């Protein structure tokens, strides 16, 4: 996937003026947040479960090497094989090698953000292997030549007419000449075409939501069942995931599953939760002959022990982006890489370098909604501030921004001058607001006032109110 994060301001401006995208994003605001809230309300122990999930993840990260080695040994006992990939290039080479040894011509894929991270589809296609996305959302955007704009709803930016157009354009080669416009008819058409792809695939590739160290199992959660067909029907099953997805026990996996579905889609549990271990045994009626797990590092081990370590707790539920006002305004593609929203604004600079993603940590209002809904309590605003500090240290911020910060720091070290200028500024802004008490444009603040009016300040300054309250508290204490 081409990195366009350096173009975030341009991407965001384009998204704000895309009428079709804005209509599609309206569905996000009306859907996932409400469903999550209802699901949480039905589980009285949800907050305690969040604490448990946070503590479990912290324990796993502190002992990551131990659990990864235990997982590898458990997979081998089940007849599978674990492959270690330091970066995207190694992961692509490993998967291509497995496919070529299997003589694969077509590969079916279950939804996997890690495969997007390593650019797997493009790599397989360049070597004569056709990758076929089987998740309906992923399939739609594959037909459109796009990448996911959301972790669990990859085609959330697409409306019904656009889906109908894509199917009509690409399905005529299968004899589907009538343009369908009803959701059920479109889904049936996709199911009919994908059924043949499932049966013909030589290799199936899925992601893994969790890897269980004690049993050597991988776990995927889906609502369509495409993941089951992807890993059961082909001769070879490859699970590609990242190293932080390991969990110690089956019980721990159950804890995270309870958190994941409620936080993601507002369900008690996903329709399909599938545990896979090893290849087909003599007594098995179905299943792959080979089972491979590719564990990707790609910079994650460098996060252990660092200031961004908490990001490794992420279980990819998308609750942060579902509640983020910035994501809700511009969608996922504006972020310019695989992972959008608040979690992407933290993770992308780690994986591609802050110099290529310096805009993303600034794509936040710091309202705190992301942290308040995170099922494992990742302090996303703090992690974003960490990146802003690194950005400032490396002189990646615009010169005007750096000058403004230096001026503000100089003033705050001179309280009397700071308070005097604050009072003067408040009076000036009240004058500019006039009778409407709203300011339509401000020098040096065009990025704000171009989209909204600024309320003119009313009453006294914060410093004056604080001083008054302190004096009142002192007098109360003397009584």
TrEMBL record:
InterPro entries recorded for this chain? 4Fe4S_Fe-S-bd (IPR017896), 4Fe4S_Fe_S_CS (IPR017900), FTHF_cligase-like_sf (IPR024185), LUD_dom (IPR003741), LutB/LldF (IPR004452), LutB_C (IPR024569), NagB/RpiA_transferase-like (IPR037171)
What is the species listed in this Swiss-Prot or TrEMBL entry? Plasticicumulans acidivorans
Q: Biological process (GO) annotations?
A: lactate metabolic process
> 4Fe-4S ferredoxin-type domain spans which residues?
305-335
Question: What is the protein's given name?
Answer: L-lactate dehydrogenase complex protein LldF
Q: Which UniProt keywords apply?
A: 4Fe-4S, Iron, Iron-sulfur, Metal-binding
SUPFAM superfamilies registered for this protein in UniProt: alpha-helical ferredoxin (SSF46548), NagB/RpiA/CoA transferase-like (SSF100950)
Q: Which Pfam families match?
A: Fer4_8 (PF13183), LUD_dom (PF02589), LutB_C (PF11870)
Note the superkingdom of the native organism: Bacteria
Q: Which PANTHER family match?
A: LACTATE UTILIZATION PROTEIN B
What GO terms are given for molecular function? Answer: 4 iron, 4 sulfur cluster binding; metal ion binding
């Amino acid at each position: 996937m081409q990195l366009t994060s350096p173009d975030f301001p341009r991407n965001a401006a384009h998204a704000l003026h895309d009428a079709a995208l804005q209509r599609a994003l309206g569905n996000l605001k009306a859907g996932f947040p409400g469903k999550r809230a209802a699901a949480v309300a039905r589980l009285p122990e949800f907050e305690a479960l969040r604490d448990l999930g946070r503590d479990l993840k912290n324990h796993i990260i502190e002992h990551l090497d131990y659990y990864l080695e235990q997982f590898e040994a458990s997979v081998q006992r089940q007849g599978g094989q674990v492959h270690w990939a330091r970066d995207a290039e190694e992961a692509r080479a490993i998967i291509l090698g497995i496919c070529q040894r299997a003589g694969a011509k077509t590969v079916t894929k279950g939804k996997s953000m890690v495969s997007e991270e390593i650019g797997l589809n493009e790599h397989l296609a360049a070597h004569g292997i056709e990758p076929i996305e089987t998740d309906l959302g992923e399939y739609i955007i594959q037909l459109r030549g796009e990448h996911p704009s959301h972790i669990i709803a990859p085609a959330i930016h697409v409306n019904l007419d656009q889906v109908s157009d894509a199917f009509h354009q690409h399905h005529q080669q299968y004899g589907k000449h009538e343009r369908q416009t009803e959701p059920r008819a479109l889904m049936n058409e996709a199911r009919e075409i994908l059924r043949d792809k499932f049966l013909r695939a030589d290799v199936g590739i899925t992601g893994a939501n969790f890897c269980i160290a004690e049993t050597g199992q991988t776990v995927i959660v889906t609502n369509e069942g495409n993941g089951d067909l992807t890993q059961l029907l082909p001769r070879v099953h490859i699970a590609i995931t990242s190293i932080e997805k390991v969990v110690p026990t089956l019980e721990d996996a159950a804890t995270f599953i309870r958190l994941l579905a409620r936080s993601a889609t507002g369900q008690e549990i996903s329709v399909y939760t599938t545990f896979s271990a090893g290849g087909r045994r003599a007594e098995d009626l179905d299943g792959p002959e080979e089972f491979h797990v590719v564990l990707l590092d790609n910079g994650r081990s460098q996060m252990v022990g660092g200031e961004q370590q908490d990001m490794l707790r992420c279980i990819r539920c998308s609750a942060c982006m579902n509640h983020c006002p910035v994501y809700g305004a511009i969608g996922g593609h504006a972020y310019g890489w695989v992972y959008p929203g608040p979690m992407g604004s933290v993770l992308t600079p780690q994986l591609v370098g802050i110099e290529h993603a310096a805009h993303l940590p600034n794509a936040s209002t710091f309202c705190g909604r992301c942290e308040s809904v995170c099922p494992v309590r990742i302090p996303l605003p703090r992690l974003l501030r960490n990146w802003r500090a690194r950005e400032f240290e490396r002189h990646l911020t615009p010169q005007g921004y750096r000058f403004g910060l230096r001026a503000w720091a100089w003033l705050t070290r001179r309280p009397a001058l700071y308070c005097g200028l604050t009072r003067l500024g408040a009076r000036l802004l009240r004058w500019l607001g006039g009778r409407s008490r709203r300011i339509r444009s401000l020098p040096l603040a065009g990025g704000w006032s171009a989209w909204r009016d600024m309320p003119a300040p009313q009453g006294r300054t914060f410093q004056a109110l604080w001083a008054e309250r302190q004096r009142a508290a002192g007098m109360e204490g003397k009584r």
